[in-house]
Amino acid sequence: MELLSPAGDMECLCSAVDYGCDAVYLGSTMFGMRASAAKFDFDTLKKGCDYAHSKGVKVYLTCNTVPSNDEIEQLPDFIKNAVQCGIDAAIVSDIGSIALIKSIVPDLEIHVSTQAGIVNYVTANELYKMGAKRIVLAREVDIENIKRIRDKIPADMDIEVFVHGAMCVSFSGRCLLSQFMVGRNANKGECAQPCRWKYHLVEEKRPGQYYEIGEENGGSYILNAKDMCMIEHLDKLRDAGVTSYKIEGRAKSAYYVAVVTNAYRAALDAIKKGEKVPSWAIGKVYKVSHRQYCTGFYLNHDDAAQYYENSGYIREYDFVGAIDSCDEGRVNFTQRNYFTLDDELEVLSPGGKMPVRINPSVLFDSKGNETRIANKATEKMWYLSDDKFPAHSIIRKPAKS
User: Fold this and answer.
1) 304-356 pLDDT, tens per residue?
2) What proportion of the chain, given as a percentage, has pLDDT over 90?
3) Cβ partners under 8 Å of residue 201, min gap 6
4) Distance between CA atoms of 250 and 33, rounded to whole angstroms?
5) Is the dihedral of CA 19, 21, 22, 27 positive or negative?
6) 199 - beta bridge partners?
7) CATH T-level topology, domain 2-168+226-304
8) Distance between CA atoms of 169 and 172, rounded to whole angstroms?
9) What are phi and psi of 244, to 5 degrees?
């Protein structure tokens, strides 16, 4: 039961690794489905692979866009360089890309992306013949059909599914709405998420007269999908034959990655022991920004209906600092968002069940000046304390409504 976490940058990778994932997936500067999270050039990719491997964690590289003629000609050099950096697998959707990668680096594992829209065992078996080690099933496949696929594919072929995070209103993310409306191609990793925007109905002979589609004055979010959360049902996916449990979020913050990874790590560990998922772990996934949760298409297709009230996130806490070290009676941290010592501050550490409340009497900025306010993003700061928190622990405060 592999826990697979997202990494949009090096900080997110460290958070995923430190908070308990078994593998991370990330994108380099080309071929990834999250253009905004293409932070891993080859130097950074090498550092990321080295750090992950030092902790026994694997690294999967996303190469799951639909490449044009010009782009696919760059794939051979790109994948050779990525392999030299130490990646453990490539996540691919395009059939030509799969064939090309297998001919260039035949020993590299191929994981076929959810973008390929795999919903049946015949497709899975054909991909296995092409050299695929793993299939990432379409989000639209329910548990009963996962079982059927598992029963009819080779025993050494892995099944990976998404268990948490944002869902796309289009089948397996195959959408051209962003391309048509703002010229940003979702299939090149540039989606502007127009499905989250407000919509009204306009009659062609009455321009400027907008009619509501729903009951709210702000319009109707008719395409706005809920977020998925399967933390209470991971045992059902295990029994269906799922190998890898994937958290969505390569465009999310290190705080999101840390908290959600920590929660799902505890959940999977409990299931392995035959225990119930601890309530504190379930509670943690509500402490990050999220839309209304659902179980997707796994249990009840009606549960995956769109959320019509708004497209905003529910957020209970703000990530305000990341602890770098604790030594000589000091807690050293990097400030991330504005806070003051009048805020209710707490620390969440890797593997920690409950956050620890902290009450510094004074902060020191990067020049050693005393202050009660942290208002310079990424500034190195510290406060006096004998507390011993591990590196990459998170400082947070309740979000203001």
Assistant:
1) 555 555 556 667 888 999 999 999 999 999 999 999 999 999 999 998 778 89
2) 66
3) 210, 211, 212, 213
4) 9
5) negative
6) 220
7) TIM Barrel (3.20.20)
8) 8
9) -125, 135
* d(C-alpha 236, C-alpha 269), whole Å: 15
Q: Which two tokens stand for residue 108?
A: 């590299």
Look at residues 317, 328, 161, 129 and name the one whose alpha carbon lies nearest to residue 239: 161
CB contact at 8 A, 307 and 198: no
- Report the alpha-carbon distance of residue 280 to residue 330 in Å, rounded: 29
State the pLDDT at residue 251. 87
**Integer Cα distance of 141 and 118 in angstroms:** 9
Please, which residues have CB within 8 angstroms of residue 171's CB and are 6 or more apart in sequence?
117, 138, 140
Domain 317-398 - what CATH class? mainly beta
Q: Which helix (H) or strand (E) holds 346?
A: strand 345-348
pTM: predicted TM-score of the whole model, two decimal places: 0.82
Q: Which of 277, 176, 287 is nearest to 230 (CA)?
A: 277
Q: Which of 23, 218, 19 is nearest to 134 (CA)?
A: 23
265, 266, 268, 273: CA torsion to nearest 10: 140
Domain boundaries along the sequence of the chain: 2-168+226-304, 317-398
DSSP, collapsed to helix, strand or coil, labels residue 288 as coil
Query: What digits encode the pLDDT tens for the residues 36-87?
Result: 656 799 999 999 999 999 999 999 999 988 888 999 999 999 999 999 999 9
Q: What is the 3-state secondary structure (H, E, C) of 211-269?
A: ECCCCCCCCECCCCECEEECCCCHHHHHHHCCCEEEECCCCCCHHHHHHHHHHHHHHHH
Instruction: Tell me the pLDDT tens digit for each residue of 178-194.
Output: 776 777 876 666 777 77
Q: For residue 93, what are its two tokens?
A: 């959707």
Residue 10 has pLDDT above 90, yes or no: yes
Closest by Cα among 156, 164, 190, 148 to 27: 190
From CA 33, how far away is CA 54, in angstroms rounded? 27
DSSP 8-state class, residue 108: S
What's the pLDDT score for residue 194? 76
Instruction: Confirm if 79 and 45 have CB atoms less than 8 A apart.
Output: no
Scan for tokens 């950096």, then name that residue: 85
